[in-house]
Amino acid sequence: MAVNYGSKRIVVGAHYGLRDWLAQRVTAVLMALFTALVLAQLLLFKGSIGYVKWASIFSAQWMKVITFTVILALLYHAWVGVRDIWMDYIKPLALRLSLQVLSLVWLVGCAGWSIQVLWRL
Prior knowledge:
Number of strands: 0
Structural class: mainly alpha
CATH topology: 3 helical TM bundles of succinate and fumarate reductases
CATH superfamily: Fumarate reductase/succinate dehydrogenase, transmembrane subunit
Mean pLDDT: 88
CATH class: Mainly Alpha
Number of helices: 4
Largest sheet: none
Shape: elongated
CATH architecture: Up-down Bundle
């Protein structure tokens, strides 16, 4: 009769491991590439840096879509980090859950606000 030595164990804490580690790296690279894109646009266009220049950079529809995608990546990046902090350092379950819900509500609100800002230009 075979003995089952590899039974599943219950992991506590963030327990998302490689997926979240990889998500943090991918979103960080995406944000770095976006920063390089915006800096290149600032350096390539002549004139003073003011509202008109910023508005012209973000007025194209493709730039708004890329910007919103990067904002979503930033919000996911922040969620993974904040969630891990809450799970690692806040032990009372009710307090941890409350902080996680408040964090999610705040991040979703930031996403909604970014839509307003981007498409109001």
